[in-house]
Every structure is written in C-alpha cells, then in structure tokens.
Design goal:
This protein is α+β, with helices and mostly antiparallel strands. It folds into two domains: about 5-60, Alpha-Beta Plaits; about 65-235, 3-Layer(aba) Sandwich (Aminopeptidase), CATH 3.40.630. Helix content is about 30%, strand content about 25%. The protein contains seven helices and eleven strands. A seven-stranded mixed sheet has the order 6-7-8-9-10-5-11, sandwiched between helices. A hairpin with a 2-residue loop joins strand 7 (about 130-135) and strand 8 (about 140-150). About 40% of the residues are buried.
C-alpha cells in the first residue's frame, strides 16, 4: 500500500519508502498546485499518471541524470548544429511546447501529459519556475523541451521533435547554457538510449539525494523573468 496525500498538506513520504515494483511509486492523491509541485521536485519526486488514474507520485531508482559538463555531442549532431539551420529560444512558446509533447505521446501510446498537467505546468511557467527550450525552422516550431528549475538543478520533464535532431539540439543548448550558469545537474528521471547517447547516466538514489541536499533551496533568482541564451552554436561542440 502507498499513502494517500491530503489536498491541504504538502508533505510527502520519504523517497526511500518508494516501491521497488512498480519502480519508484511513492504516493497517490493530493493536487497539482504550484506549492505542492515545487515541494515535490525539491525532494526528487514527480507526478506521472494517465488520464483516468488518480495523481501518482514517483521517485525511481536508479535515477537518470546528466551532469552538464559531461554532455556528449556526436560528430553527426555537431555537424547539424554548425549548419545553423535551427533557431533556438528560451521561454518563447512554453504552452506550444508542452502541447506538442502531449500530442506526440497521445498519438503513440497515450499520454501522461493530461490537460490538468498542462495547466499546472503553465502556472509554473508564469511564475518563472518552469522553462522551455524551443527549436524553430523557418518560423515553425519543430522541437523543444520543458522542465523545472529549482536551485541549480533543472528537472527535465518531456521533449518532442517533428523533424530530425530537433529535440537533441534543444537538449544540447540547454545543457551547455546550464553549464555556463553553473548548474550541477539535469534530472532526466528515467533511462533512455537517446539520453544515454548524449552523456546521461544512472545514479543511485543515495547519490541523487546528495545532489538534492547540496542544492540551494531557492526556486530561482529572477522572479518570473524569462530565460534567454548567452551562448552561441560555436559553444555547443
């Protein structure tokens, strides 16, 4: 059995009590208010549930992460980046990015990015906690990703690509910019071959908790300011 969260209490169980099967399931219930979501991510917990399920909260182990300095850019991807065929922005189309992420998964296997989730993360974007990276080609949004920034950790949520390499380019720009800003970690949540090929690795829950414990408690340093890039394509690879 897992605990059921009350809507008037933002406390979560210790992540060490998460189930081994299904891996990382910690609690159910509660809500997706900004305060609860921020509290969750600070502790390495994230919501993940389907349309007809209650809200489910997870903290899997091992945890897939990328240390920004360890980003790996393949030779073929470096060529794509140097061609400058894409325009990359921060925080210019958050709602479009999350909508595309949701649509992509809905078309493939059903989505966990429900309308309720989209609304909740849009609220976090409005207060400067959630951020998006957009990849444009001839004025069309062709790729992107979004996630949360708390302290010096970026908690990645989802990405999409409607043309080859667009989401990889978004991830590269994000990682290099976060490296330039002194971020310690990108939380990728769950392993994928796609992320592993770019330098992501799996770490134990204990090691992930150490990153969380060293992380500043502030949500961000810029209020609700939008991010902007201070790096160029030559800085990526």
């Amino acid at each position: 059995m897992i605990p059921w969260l009350a809507e008037d209490n933002y406390c979560f169980p210790d992540i060490n009590s998460a189930l081994q099967e299904p891996n990382g399931l910690l609690a159910a219930g509660g809500d997706l208010s900004p305060g609860r979501l921020i509290s969750a991510y600070r502790q390495g917990i994230f919501p993940w549930f389907s349309e007809d399920d209650p809200i489910l909260w997870w903290s899997p182990a091992p945890r897939c992460v990328l240390i920004p300095q360890r980003l790996h850019v393949s030779k073929s991807l470096a060529k794509v980046i140097r061609k400058n065929q894409f325009q990359i922005t921060f925080d210019q189309a958050f709602d479009q990015v999350i909508d595309n992420c949701s649509a992509l998964r809905r078309n493939r296997e059903g989505t966990w990015i429900t309308d309720e989730m989209q609304s909740a993360y849009s609220e976090l974007s409005a207060i400067g906690v959630a951020h998006s990276v957009e990849v444009w080609q001839q004025g069309e949004l062709v790729g992107g990703l979004y996630g949360l920034c708390i302290g010096n950790i970026f908690f990645g949520e989802s990405m999409f690509s409607s043309t080859a390499n667009a989401s990889k380019v978004a991830f590269c720009y994000l990682a290099r910019q976060l490296q330039d800003w002194g971020f310690s970690l990108i939380d990728c949540q769950l392993h994928s071959d796609h992320l592993q090929s770019m330098g992501a690795e799996e770490i134990s829950r204990e090691k992930f908790q150490q990153f969380l414990q060293r992380n500043p408690s502030s949500v961000n340093d810029t209020g609700n300011a939008k991010w902007s890039f201070s790096i160029a394509s030559d800085d990526i690879c």
